[in-house]
Amino acid sequence: MTTSADFQQMLRGAALRVTRPRVAVLGAVHAHPHADTDSIIGAVRAELPDASHQAVYDSLRVLTNAGLVRRIQPAGSVARYESRVGDNHHHVVCRSCGAISDVDCAVGEAPCLTASDDNGFSIDEAEVVYWGRCPACSGSEAGSF
Amino acid sequence: MTTSADFQQMLRGAALRVTRPRVAVLGAVHAHPHADTDSIIGAVRAELPDASHQAVYDSLRVLTNAGLVRRIQPAGSVARYESRVGDNHHHVVCRSCGAISDVDCAVGEAPCLTASDDNGFSIDEAEVVYWGRCPACSGSEAGSF
DNA sequence: CCCTTTTTCTGAACGAGTCAAGAAAACAGT
DNA sequence: ACTGTTTTCTTGACTCGTTCAGAAAAAGGG
To answer: CA-CA distance, A41 to A53, in Å (whole number)?
Structure first.
């Protein structure tokens, strides 16, 4: 388990000012992987009832830029955040309920990074999203349309 | 070049009613790959000045569900549409200007489809987005921040 | 402890996309 | 062709995630 002091440490390590909203946001992202901004606002307010939504948006942006959290946004979804950073991992997204799970890089050494033809682009990241149905949704046929 | 009659054919083939907005939208998507909805509305109105934005939104949804066009939406971007469907191809997105290019599937037989651990999900598609800088943006250092 | 800079708060604003109800158009059957 | 039914289009309002702006508060170096 990660403590508040650890989060302060992480902020300082990234040369960021340590503020209560930031610590709370960092804690919320660690506690609720793949949570959307609204859930994070809720989690932050459990601890800091008067935190503004703007502070949460600002903190998330700062933390994302600093590399302390990662922002993901599958098509058709709102922004979601996770604390697992630095490892090149991907996600499975349920088409039916939107549930997200982590997936380690399919092939050992990030082969997806090699596009067959990069059109002259200089590529620095390959993002993979697997689409399907989560166990719950593939069991019940509801929503399969 | 694809003609209006071809588009009507495609609509009938998909068991969809042939309407002028739909034909125009299909034409616009074919003419402007990776265009966003607003650009498509503009292109449609060049031919059908009184088309409503709602008709375009509706048509795009119908065409997407029918598999006649494909909707893509890289994180942080609005929805974009393309007419290249059925082949499992991917995209390179410029972090700086948002330009998008097509990329054929990196490895011959869609290996990315095999997640290392699917968490019990039944996966039906693997979407790959390559992030980087387009030739123009990697040349000029502007925007690299 | 003070000062400057950065961050947060309040509240308004924005924009892509959706919802709803009535009018118009498509197409199957006669 | 004409009619009737169903689908689609138009108009206009509206939602919701996110951002903008200015004033107030807090962080951290000297």
So the answer is: 6
For residue A8 the two structure tokens come to 């302060």
Interface A-B, measured as beta-carbon pairs within 8 A, has a size of: 135
Q: Cα angle at A68 between A66 and A71, to 5 degrees?
A: 90
Name residues 67-106 of chain A with a Cβ under 7 Å from nucleic strand D: 73, 78-79
Tokens standing for residue B101: 């290019």
Q: Which nucleotide is at minimal CA–C1' distance from B19?
A: C26
Q: Which two tokens stand for residue A122?
A: 């200089």
Tell the burial category of A49 from Cβ atoms under 10 Å away from its Cβ (0-12, 13-18, 19+).
Answer: exposed
d(CA B67, CA B61): 10
**CB nearest A132 (choices: B72, B104, B123):** B123
**Which is it for the CA torsion A111, B144, B92, A90, positive or negative?**
positive
Cβ neighbors of B62 (< 8 A, separation 6 or more) are B16, B22
Q: Are A25 and A40 in contact (CB under 8 A)?
A: yes
A25-53 residue pLDDT tens: 999 999 999 999 999 999 999 999 999 99
B50 CB closer than 7 A to any strand D atom: yes
Sign of the Cα torsion B60, B63, B66, B71 reads: negative
In Å, how far are A75, A120, B47, B127 from A134, measured between CA atoms? 17, 37, 44, 17
pLDDT (tens digit, 9 = 90+) per residue, B27-66? 999 999 999 999 999 999 999 999 999 999 999 999 999 9
Q: Helix or strand or coil: residue B43? A: helix
Looking at the predicted structure, is the pLDDT value of residue B110 above 60?
no
Tell me the C-alpha distance between B92 and B45, whole Å.
29
